[in-house]
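We emphasize that the prediction below concerns an isolated chain of 135 residues; any contacts that depend on oligomerization or on bound cofactors are therefore not represented. The input was used exactly as deposited, without trimming of termini.
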Amino acid sequence: MTTSNLHVRHSYRRLYRHGLRAVQYSVPRRYVVRDELRQAFRSSSAKDFDREKIDATVAFLQSATKETGTANKILKNLIHAWWWEWTLGEEERDLRRNCLQYFNITIKMLNESMGMCLPDGRVSRTRATAIPGTA
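Result of the prediction step, given as a token string:
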């Protein structure tokens, strides 16, 4: 394993650990965080790895964990939007994807302005696993 792969793995674990703390290990939010993080790391290459963006995102997640301020509300709404994107049928998903276009642009601008790497909806999401506790 190269050093680059080791750093990517450690970054994935750090983001996952702090993401779980930020959502307080609650169902279904922890599964949404897990699946979004997996999808983001699987769809990008090691060339896209930027330690500064990872550190800024971890700091954002830590801020969301410590107090119920703006970071917490942004994370809550982001996870809520991802959850509803997953639960819709195929026809509704296409309609909602058009509606979420501005939401994804906002996430992209947030990433640029704060130097973070939150997923911005550019990857097509499919539910690979069922979330326990939901029907």
